[in-house]
Design brief:
nine-stranded mixed sheet; 8 helices; 16% strand
Length: 294
C-alpha cells in the first residue's frame, strides 16, 4: 500500500474543538441520511432537510448509495451527507454489489452525481457547501470532491469542503487524487480500525486520528466500525480542558492482517471477488430463504 501523509496536528485547542463539534454534526447528519426518517430527530433542531435535493431531501440509488441535503437554520451552511453502507439492504443483491466498496464508492457516486450537482447549482456559489460521509459515504464524498475540483467544473472556485469519518479510501480509484489536497478534504480516522483501508489510500492531504476510549464495543481486537468510537473521542475533546484529549498525533493507517479488523477487511476484499467465507454464507440456501422473508 502506498505511503500515507502523516496525521496532522493543530496549533491550538480551539482547532481540535471545532473539528470535534463539526464531526458530531456531520455524524448525526450521515446517520439521518442512512435512516431517512420522515421527521428529523430532536438533536437536529438547527437543521432542516432541503426539499430541493432529490426526493424531499433524500437520494437513494439502486446500487446502495444514500445521501441527504441539510440547511442550517442559523448560518449559510449546507451539508450534503453521504450514508455509510446500509448492511441490511446490502444483503439483498438487488440493491447493492459489495464489490462497489473496492472502488471507494465510485459506482454509488456515479449513480447520484447528476442529482448532487443539480443541487449545487440550486444553492449557488454564495453558500458554504460541505460534503460529509461516514465509511462508504466518505468514499463517495471523495469522488464528489474530485469532480467538484476538475478543471472544467463550474464549482471549482466555490470553496466546497469535504469531510470523511472512518471513511474508506478512494485515491486509487480516481484520476487525480491531488485535487483533494490543500485542505479541501479532511479525514478523521479511528486508530485501530483497519476496515477504512479496505479500498486503499484516502484522497486528500489532511488526516487526523482519534483514539476512542477502551469502554467501547470491540470486534475481535479492533474497535467497532460504528460511530460510537468517533463520537466518544469528539465528546472528550470538547469537554476536556486541553481540548485535544481524543486526538492522537501519530497514526499511519495500514491493512494489518494480524488484527481483527484486518482479517475482516481481507474477507470483504475477497468477497468482492467472489472468493471468501462470506460468499459461502451469503449464497447459502438458508440465506436465500431469509432474504425472501423481508
Amino acid at each position: 500500500m502506498s505511503q500515507y501523509p502523516k496525521t496532522g496536528t493543530y496549533s491550538t485547542s480551539t482547532n481540535y474543538r471545532v473539528t470535534a463539534q463539526r464531526g458530531l454534526e456531520h455524524l448525526m447528519l450521515t446517520d439521518i441520511a442512512q435512516k431517512q426518517p420522515g421527521e428529523l430527530p430532536a438533536n437536529a433542531a438547527e437543521w432542516e432537510l432541503d426539499p430541493r435535493f432529490g426526493n424531499g431531501g433524500y437520494v437513494t440509488t439502486e446500487n446502495g448509495g444514500k445521501a441527504a441535503a441539510f440547511r442550517n437554520k442559523k448560518t449559510n451552511r449546507v451539508v450534503i451527507a453521504f450514508s455509510p453502507l446500509d448492511v441490511p439492504e446490502a444483503l439483498d443483491s438487488k440493491l447493492t454489489d459489495i464489490d462497489d466498496i473496492h472502488d471507494g464508492g465510485k459506482k454509488q457516486w456515479e449513480a447520484m452525481r447528476e442529482q448532487v450537482q443539480d443541487y449545487q447549482y440550486v444553492v449557488g456559489a454564495n453558500t458554504q457547501i460541505e460534503m460529509a460521509g461516514h465509511s462508504l459515504g466518505a468514499g463517495i464524498a471523495q469522488h464528489a470532491l474530485h469532480d467538484t475540483y476538475a478543471p472544467n467544473s463550474p464549482f471549482r472556485d466555490w470553496g466546497v469542503k469535504g469531510y470523511g469519518y472512518d471513511g474508506i479510501g478512494a485515491a486509487e480509484h480516481m484520476e487525480h487524487p491531488e485535487r483533494l489536497n490543500q485542505g479541501r478534504m479532511t479525514h478523521v480516522l479511528a486508530k485501530g480500525n483497519d476496515l477504512h483501508t479496505v479500498s486503499g489510500k484516502h484522497a486528500g492531504d489532511t488526516i487526523h486520528a482519534v483514539e476512542p476510549s477502551n469502554k467501547l464495543p470491540v470486534v475481535g481486537d479492533g474497535l467497532s466500525h460504528r460511530t460510537e468510537g468517533l463520537r466518544d473521542s469528539f465528546e472528550r475533546t470538547i469537554k476536556t480542558s486541553d481540548g485535544r484529549r481524543g486526538f492522537v498525533e501519530k497514526y499511519e493507517p495500514k491493512l494489518e492482517q494480524d488484527t481483527g479488523f484486518g482479517k475482516i477487511a481481507k474477507q470483504v476484499e475477497r468477497f468482492g471477488k467472489g472468493d471468501s467465507l462470506l460468499n459461502n454464507v451469503f449464497n447459502s440456501k438458508p440465506a436465500h430463504k431469509l432474504r425472501k422473508l423481508f
